[in-house]
C-alpha cells in the first residue's frame, strides 16, 4: 500500500537549493511512498482573529491537503539559525483550530540543506522542537543535515552528487520504514 507523503519545501524562492533537492527526491524515494508537495507560500500569517467559521480559504485548503497525507517531509534551509518564518507559519496554521490539528499523530522527517558547513542543523533542530509540540512524530534517525548545497547541483538544478544521492536514498528508505511503523498501529 502506497503512503502519501506531504512534501513541504521551506524556501519560497524558485531557484532555492531546497526546491532543487525536493525535485530530485521522487527518483530517490521507494515506490511505497508518493510525494505530494503542499505549498506554504500563499498562507496568510496565522492570526487567531481570523479563526472563525470561515477562516481564510488558503488555510482551509492547506489543512485539507495535510490531512489527506499519511506522513510529512520537510525540506528546509536555515535562516538566522532557525527555520524560515513560512515554515513556522505553516506549522501554526496546520495546528489549528484547537483540537483539530492537521498534523496530529503523523510520522514526519526533516531534511535540512544549506551552502554552509553545518547543513542547517540549527533549523533542523528548531523545526523538530515545533514538530513535537504539534504532535508530529519526528523520525529520530537518520538525521539529514546537508552542507555545501551550491556544489551539489548542476546549472539546470539537477542533483549531481552521487554521495548525496546515495545518502538521500537511504534516508528515504528509512523514512518509509518509519511510516510503516505508524501504519501498522492504525
Features:
alpha/beta; 6-stranded parallel sheet; 186 residues; Rossmann fold
Mean pLDDT: 95
Q: In CATH, what is the class? A: Alpha Beta
Please trace the helix and strand order, writing H or E for each element. EHEHEHEHEEH
- Could you give the distance between the termini? 13 Å
Taking Cα atoms only, what radius of gyration do you get, to the nearest Å? Answer: 16 Å
Classification by helices and strands: alpha/beta
And the CATH topology?
Rossmann fold
Reported for the largest beta sheet, the result is: 6 strands, parallel
What fraction, in percent, of the residue positions are helical? 25-40%
Short description:
With 186 residues, the protein is an alpha/beta fold.
Protein described:
By secondary structure, the chain is of the alpha/beta class. 34% of the residues lie in helices and 16% in strands. β1, α1 and β2 form a beta-alpha-beta unit. The mean pLDDT is 95.
List the helices and strands and how they pair.
Layout (H helix, E strand, L loop, with lengths): L2 E7 L7 H8 L8 E5 L19 H11 L3 E6 L8 H10 L12 E7 L7 H13 L3 E2 L5 E3 L15 H22 L3
Parallel strand pairs: 1-2, 1-3, 3-4, 4-5, 4-6
Amino acid at each position: 500500500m502506497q503512503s502519501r507523503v506531504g512534501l513541504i519545501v521551506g524556501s519560497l524562492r524558485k531557484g532555492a537549493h531546497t526546491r532543487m533537492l525536493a525535485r530530485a527526491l521522487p527518483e530517490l524515494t521507494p515506490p511505497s511512498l508518493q510525494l505530494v508537495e503542499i505549498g506554504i507560500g500563499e498562507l496568510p500569517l496565522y492570526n487567531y482573529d481570523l479563526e472563525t467559521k470561515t477562516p481564510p480559504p488558503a488555510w482551509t485548503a492547506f489543512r485539507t491537503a495535510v490531512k489527506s497525507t499519511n506522513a510529512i517531509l520537510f525540506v528546509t534551509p536555515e535562516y538566522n539559525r532557525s527555520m524560515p518564518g513560512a515554515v513556522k507559519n505553516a506549522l501554526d496554521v496546520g495546528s489549528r483550530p484547537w483540537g483539530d490539528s492537521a498534523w496530529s499523530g503523523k510520522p514526519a522527517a526533516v531534511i535540512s540543506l544549506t551552502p554552509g558547513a553545518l547543513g542547517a542543523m540549527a533549523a533542523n533542530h528548531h523545526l523538530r522542537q515545533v514538530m513535537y509540540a504539534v504532535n508530529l512524530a519526528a523520525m529520530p534517525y537518520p538525521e539529514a543535515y546537508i552542507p555545501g548545497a551550491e556544489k551539489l547541483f548542476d546549472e539546470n538544478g539537477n542533483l549531481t552528487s552521487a554521495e548525496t544521492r546515495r545518502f538521500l536514498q537511504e534516508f528515504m528508505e528509512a523514512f518509509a520504514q518509519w511510516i510503516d511503523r505508524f501504519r501498522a498501529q492504525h
